[in-house]
Every structure is written in C-alpha cells, then in structure tokens.
Amino acid sequence: MDAALGPPAAMADHGDDLTPMMTQYVELCERYDDALVLFQMGDFYEAFCEAAEVVSRELEVALTQREDSTGTYPMAGVPIRSAASSVETLLDAGYRVAVAEQVEDAEEATGVVDRAVTRVVTPGTVVEDELLAPGSANYVACLASATGEGEGTYAVAVVDVSTGEFRVTSADSREGIRDELDRFAPKEAVLAPEFDGDFDLDCMVTPHDPDAFEVEAARERLESVASRPEAVVENDAELRAAGALLAYAAHTQTADGALDHVTRLTRDDPRDRLELDATALRSLGVFENPSGSDDHTLLDVLDETSCALGRRTLVRWLRRPLRDRERIEARLDAVAELTHASLVREELRDLLRDVYDIERLVGTVSRRRANARDLRALKATLDVVPKIRETLSETDSALLADSRADLDGLDDVRGLIGRAIREEPPTEITEGGVIARGFDDDLDELRTNAREGREWVEGLEERERERTGIDSLSVGHNEVHGFYIEVTNPNLDAVPEEYTRRQTLKNSERFYTPELKRREDEILGASERADAREHRLFREVREEVAGETERLQALADTLAALDTLATLAHVAVENRYTRPELDHDGVAIRDGRHPVVERGTEFVPNDVDLREERFAVITGPNMSGKSTYMRQVALIQLLAQVGSFVPASEAKLPVVDRIFTRIGASDDIAGGESTFMREMTELTAVLHDATRDSLVLLDEVGRGTSTTDGEAIARAVTEFIHDEVGATTLFATHYHDLARLGDELDGVRTLHFAVEGDPDAGDGTGSDGVTFLHTVAEGSASASYGIEVARLAGVPESVVERSRDLVARETGSSEPATDETDEPGEEQRSAGDESEAGDEAAIPPEAVAELRELRVAELTPVEALVRLDTLKRRFDDQDN
Prior knowledge:
Blueprint: H1 9-12, H2 20-31, E1 36-41, E2 44-48, H3 49-59, E3 64-68, E4 71-79, H4 83-92, E5 97-102, E6 115-121, E7 140-145, E8 154-160, E9 165-171, H5 174-184, E10 188-191, E11 204-206, H6 215-222, H7 236-252, E12 266-267, H8 278-283, H9 298-302, H10 308-319, H11 325-340, H12 342-352, H13 358-366, H14 372-391, H15 398-406, H16 411-420, H17 441-468, E13 474-478, E14 482-488, E15 500-504, E16 508-512, H18 514-546, H19 549-575, E17 587-592, H20 597-600, E18 606-610, E19 615-619, H21 626-642, E20 650-652, E21 658-662, H22 675-689, E22 694-699, H23 707-725, E23 728-732, H24 741-744, E24 748-756, E25 771-778, H25 786-792, H26 797-811, H27 845-853, H28 861-879
Parallel strand pairs: 1-5, 7-10, 9-12, 10-11, 19-23, 19-24, 21-22, 22-23
Antiparallel strand pairs: 1-2, 2-4, 3-4, 5-6, 7-8, 8-9, 13-14, 14-16, 15-16, 17-18, 17-20, 24-25
C-alpha cells in the first residue's frame, strides 16, 4: 500500500480524541485504504497529513495546515469546481481517488455534516465526460481461472462503466487470455487472487475482495444482468471474472442505481471472429504506428465517423473482425448500397452528426447525475431518428432494412422530455427554470404567485412616492432583511404611521408595511415551494427516462452501426476501394495497395496470387517494399472481414481464422529475452496455433543468429508450414537459398522486388545508380543491395567503399564488388566469420536428414537453440 493511503498515522494516534469531522475523515480512509480520499469541506475537496503532501506535490498546490484541539496537521485541497482536472492528474500519477461528499445540507445538519464516498475514481471506472476520450471505450478488466488455482480455463471480463458495455470471453492458456486482455486494451485490471503478481500488465492492477470471486457470489451478482448467468457464460472462469468485475464496478460507483445501465452481458466467442493478438495489431499498425502514435494508422484512415457512437463501434469491429461469411456479406451489401446511393449516404452522415453520445448519456441518467441539458441532448438525438428512418426508406440491403426497422424513436420519452424540460435550461437543477411552463399546474400556479408578488413589489416604489410625496423613497431587498422601503433621514417626518421600522442606517431608515410583509411571505413561500416542486418533478422525469435504458441502448447500437457502415462506404468512395469476393481457397489480389502508406506517398500497386501455391518466399533488398507488401495483404484481409471494401481493383479472399505476424525485431529486456529469443517465442506461437485457415506473415526469420543457424531455421519453418500447417503464408527473407524451395515444394512460389540500375553508376548522392521499383515479380532477387541501401540512407562514402572492398575480398573478386554474388545466399556471410567463408564443406547428408526430421513447432525456444547448437558443434568438429 502507498504510504500516502490508508488512515493518517498522526491522526490515528489520537483515536477517540479527534474532532467529529476528523473522525469522519479517518474512518473513510480506513474503509477506502487503497485510495486517496478527497474530503469535501464547503467548496473544496481537502486531504490531510501524508495524503495532503501527495496532493500538494502532484497538483502543485500550496500545503497549508489545519489546527484543532488534538494538534496541527498538513492540509491541501482543490476547489470543487475544478476537481475534474485535479482527479485526472492524480489518476495519471497512479492513484485511485475516493471522493467523499457532504450528503446532507449543512444548514439542516445537527452537529457535524455527514459525508460519504460517492464514487471511487480509477482509470478504468471513470465516468466524468471531462476525463473520457470521446468516441473511445474505457475498459476495466477482470481475470480469473476456472479452478481458482491459476490452471485450466482462463477468462477475462471487461466493462465500460461510462456506457454499460459488458463482455466476457475465455481461453485455454495463459498466453491466450493475455492476448484477449491485450486486445481490449483496458485502462485497469482486477486480478483474481490466484494471479497475484503473475501478470505484468501495461495498466493499473487493482486488488479486490477475494470473496467476490467465489462462484456462488459471482452467480448471484450476475443475476442482475442475466436471470440465468449459465445461459450466457460458458464456464466457471467466465462466471467468476464477470461476477467479480460487476462487484468491483459497483464498489467504485457507490450511488444507488449507478450500474442500472449495465443491463446485458455479451459473451465473445473466439470462434466467431478473426483473431488478432496484440502483436498483430501493433505490427499491422491498426491502432498505433511503430512509434506508438495513433497517427498514420488504419483507424486513422477509416475514422470518418459522424458521431462518438460510430467511432467506438468502428474500433470494436476492427478489434473483432467477423468469421461468419453471412454476417460479413450482410455488411458488404450495406456498404455497397451506400457507395452507390451517394445522396442517401451523405444525408445519413449529415443527420448522424446531430446524434449525441447517448450511450454515455444513458449511463449518466442511470447514475442519477444527468442534468436538464443532458435530457435535452437526449431529446435532440431522438428528434433525428424519424429523419434517419425516412432517409433509409428506399434502401434494399437486409442490414439497412433491419436497421430502419430497429430505429425506435422512443416517442414517449421524446415527448416527455419535450413537455417537461425547457429548451435552454440552466446547468444546475437547483437553480430553477428547468421545468417547462404547462407541464405541471401546481408549479405554474406557484410561479404565477411568485411572479405576481414581484410585479406588485416592482410597482410599490412609484405608488408610495406618489402617496407619501417622498421623492427619494426606494424599495429594495436583501437576503437578511427581505423586502424594505427606504427613506432618507431628512424625509422621516413624512413617513406614514403604518410603516414599521425594520433597520436603521447612518443616513436613512428602512421600513415595511403589513401588505409588503404579506407579499414577501407569499413570494418567498411560493418560490421555495416552486423550487422544491421543480426539483422533485425533474427527478421524476429523469427516473422515467432511466426506466427506458434498454430501449435507448438498443437505439444507440443501431445508430452506431449505421454510422460505421456509412463511414466505410464514404472511405471506399474517397479512396477507390472495391468490394472483396469471399469464399475462395487462397488469396488473389489485383493492384493491391497499403491503405495507410498510400495516403502519404505515390504508391505502386502490386498483385498477389496464393491460390494454387499458398506459400510465397519473397526476396529483395531492404527499402524495396517487402514488409509493406505483406502488411497490405493482411490489412486487405482484415478489412474484408470487418465488412469493408478494400484498396485493390480486385480481391478474391478466403475467410481466415487468424492473422499471425512475425515482423520486425524487438527486445524484451525486462523479461530477459534477446531479440532472437523474442523472435523464436513469437515463431513458436505461430507454428503451434496456425491452421490451414490462417494467414501468416513472416519477416526475416532467423536473422538474429549466425547465417548457418538462421538459414536452417528459416528452411525448417517453411517446410513445416508447407507440410504440416498449410496456412496461406508470406515469408520475406534475405536467405536467397530459400528461393530454391519454389522448385522443391509444390505449394511454394518465389517472388522478388525488382531493382533497376547499376549500384556503381551512382554519384554517392542517391540520384543515380540503383532504383527500387517497388514492384513484385516472379523468381528470386539476384542480390540484397544492402550496401546500396546504406548509400541511399546517407552513410559516408568512405564507409560505403570500404564495405564494397570487404565484400569483394570475401567473394574472391579482383574488382570492387557490387552487392551481387555468384552464389545465392553469399551476401549473408560476414567477412569475419571464418566458418562461413571460403570453401565451406557441404552440410553432411545425415545432418540434412536430421534437420528435415526436426519438428520445430514442438520444441520450446530453448530446446530449439540447444539442438541447433549441437548441430553447429558437430559441423565445427568435422571442419577441424
């Protein structure tokens, strides 16, 4: 526990001697000992002792002191009106914040004002609009196992408290559930007791009551969203994860009804979607680019959504592409119709721009925190629904027709808000002026009485001046003395007898009359009763709206899907995408393009045909476009299974179960893994989990070790995928010897990226010499052109020339060398590796046989390294 959290030591030492207010504070700190308690005192939230030092340091506010009968304590606080930004800063610093508010009127309190924690704010349970990214989900996750011992089946549940989205899924391994956890990208995770310290996560990890993970307790909790939880969840792991998560969410949202909008639990079945783990999402640049930014990503290209509802749905669709061909085709039919019906598409997009984020509005309503403007925003969205329904009246595709039928305008709710709430209400519901005239007769009468009383008072000054002849007479009002008639001292002799003195000032006297007093009582009484009645009426209206949460959420789902479909159609038209054809065996793409790269540069389209031969070995120099080519194939496949058109003139695709990527080098220094070990670990997952229905991207497998070892691994991997797995595979490599596999294996074809020109013809500036054409051609590249790439990158010419000399010496040439070699694979050999230079003996046949029999996918990374090291030592011994 952080030393700043829990009960302050200095106060705890005083025990029963503390003042009642400080006793309250200490008790709340004890109850919420994992959070920093912000304690309302008037218009400020205050913290004391160690917590005050944290608040002062993190928020850069003054550290003051509070002194009472028991001592002097450090104190720091922030104004309530600016608390949201302060809470955000504390969350960013890694703290949970418990907000303790005054829950009774200070004027009505007997003794100390009662306070209670009204919510615990954590990164995953934020509900304040100021702290949430518009259009992005904000998940808190919970991880549990079926046995409670960290073995067997694993499950992860997630909930977005701001919208009510609630999901659960499971996997049969730790690696699988980690992938699921990463796929949701939660801001916070609650772990079952059996996982304490086992998972290193990139988010806040929160402990929670172990009792909440008990199966019966979880089942009872879930009955609030599913009358028969077993009909939704598939195993005890899912039951424990979902039930405990709901309990934790309720713990953070302490107000009654705070989770009324969490009305349904959805089970994500991995068999229903194209699986993309966190590695694939990163390497394909779906949500973030290699630098970690969200610019220049697939989402950045596609996100032309009109409202926040659509953006969140677009992200969900990208995280969970479909595997059900009928559902994919239904989306494609809708997108196709909207691409052709341009007027319908643009009118729909214009209307959706007037749709508020009703998912979060419903959450605010259900937490009883919605104000009158929130309800008017809800009505503004409902006003748009009939127009959207009319816009879709001529559409034919099944999905658009179903969406039109599902557009519940909630006329009853819309009418209620329209009748009850003024068009331009104040933000605070206690300010009055919220309920519209004509909604409630009693309220209108009270307002009329108050207004008529004020009008009588407004005319009193002129009438009394005329009646008394006192020209300086004035009528006023203040909070202490109410209404009064003020007369200056020189005119006091003219004051009528019925005036009663109310207040004496230096230069004047203030009076009231029986009629003025009666009118004052009427005005104040009517105003107070009107304010109280208006407040009650507003809460009744809000409660009635909250009762329609499920209908509003269903409407939000429909509007979100329409926005996403219209967006995909808009992007397809703007970027010249075409409809993919599904249900093919293998991938065939004509004029394929990378959807992100093509936006920033002149792009060279390329074809791919992996139907007869499903494995492509791709050679060519760096900078030629191998990685881009592989990624564009994967992104085209992903877009197709989202239900989107794709960047190509033609695409005939299968429905794949998973996309695997092993692209680029990375270290896991904290985990003790080198680049090569990380590569082997990722490769192991591919070889174990890929199926014939998978799409596999492999880039430079084996380059993290010696050429001999690396090439052996690369060849063995190719043979294993070809012989055992059968997945559609793109394998980019510098090992040109692998090109021979195109002749040896029926299902392998060889491609290369074309290069034009002579590397020795350049002037060292990159303006002449080699030109990378970025076009794919049949066969193997004749060279790697590594030195030429270095020259184009700006490496000093002396280094470039020295590199050429070293290559020439290594290859035995008397002329300064280009990167070209007489033997495929020679460019991989380093000048300093004697075991690979010169007249190296052929690999013994028995070693080749042993390599062929090696079942790489069944080895752990360490076992694979040991076997390779044994083989290498045997070759070295033979050479000696």
